[in-house]
Amino acid sequence: MEKAKVAVFVSGVDTSATETKGTVLIHSAEQLENYAKTEEAKVEELIKAVADSGANVIVSGGAVGEMALHFCERYKLMVLKISSNQPKPDDLGYVDSVSVEEIGGVQVTILRSEEGGKRVSTVVLQGSTDSILDHLKRAVDDGVNTYKAMCRDSRMVPGVAATEIELKSFLIKK
């Protein structure tokens, strides 16, 4: 999908559940059918509103219900369910392309934004154990935080034997 408009939902795309339990007395098949149609109409209204806004892709940080998926398919919306450490507010954004590719034997969904705006990158880490992945994640996190710190304040003191390595290089050249 090229030039996609993306809608992000933190709480998921599903029918909302109440905090209290209630009892609904249904005396006929007609009442049951009307009850189901009301719920269905609310979900369709939500999905139609997203489609009418021009969005092509929905990114959900929570559950995506079967009924919502049905209406997303009807309105030709692509749905991605992700789990995020820091959810973002409901918002619309743009990507140049959305595709599914295989990386290391695993199917991944790739959202690309080639032109303008801020560039965002995703690093895919693979490891044989959770412990190794935790170490890799910390290493990447440390590297990104160091880069961010250098961008904010370029006054940096070299560390971890950087001075000795530089002196060695200087002496070898002489």
Describe this protein's structure.
By secondary structure, this protein is of the alpha/beta class. It contains 4 helices and 5 strands. It has a 5-stranded mixed sheet with strand order 3-2-1-4-5, covered by helices on one side. Strand 2, helix 2 and strand 3 form a beta-alpha-beta unit. The model has no long low-confidence stretch (mean pLDDT 79).
Largest sheet: 5 strands, mixed
Percent of residues in helical segments?
25-40%
Helical/strand content category: alpha/beta
Shape descriptor: elongated
User: End-to-end distance, in Å?
Assistant: 58 Å
Q: Give the uncertain stretches in residue-range form.
A: none
Oligomer: single chain
Instruction: Identify the strand order in the major beta sheet.
Output: 3-2-1-4-5
The number of helical segments is 4
SSE topology sketch:
Blueprint: E1 2-9, H1 29-52, E2 57-60, H2 66-74, E3 78-81, E4 91-103, E5 106-112, H3 130-152, H4 162-173
Parallel strand pairs: 1-2, 2-3
Antiparallel strand pairs: 1-4, 4-5
Task: Spell out the key features of this protein.
174 residues; elongated; 5-stranded mixed sheet; single chain; alpha/beta
Question: How do you describe this structure in short?
Answer:
The protein is an alpha/beta fold and 174 residues long. 39% of the residues lie in helices and 21% in strands. The chain has a five-stranded mixed beta sheet, covered by helices on one side.
